[in-house]
Model the fold of this input.
Amino acid sequence: NSMNSIASLITIDPARAEGMVEDLSDLFRASLSEPGLVPLSKELDLCRRFVRIEQTRIGERLRVVWEIDPDVLDVKVPSLLLQPLIENAIYHGIQPLPEGGEVRVSAKRAGEQCRLEVSNPLLDPKTLNTKGHGLALDNIHRRLSAYFEGTIGWQTEVDHGRYLLRIQF
Done:
């Protein structure tokens, strides 16, 4: 999808197409690099690049609200922790809605811990477990457990037509 978007932009907006290629290159580089801990600021930069690509593809239907506490920008997180969560939020929450919607990303301190939240609209709560296999969530939970054994809070909920994932470590 991203490559098709780039191809369609080459003749009408070459600068934007070039920006998408750079963003996509950074995503590929991150996905191929050795797993490890990175500052949350670096993970958020990668997520913003991913969102730019998706906004080019989906357009105004995708709105993202970032609520990031500067106090957590240096917190170390597993690489590619948030990006797949945001990708899921867009795929399951925004794409199915003709009018689109809003993905909310929050990162803040919760005492001595860091709390990350990603939420998106949900068409019908009954379809929650039928659209995906939960592989991304399971993978992220396992990776967090490997790095922060015994100190992880993991909660999902559906409230007022929104799906919310809250992670605390």
The chain has a mean pLDDT of 88.
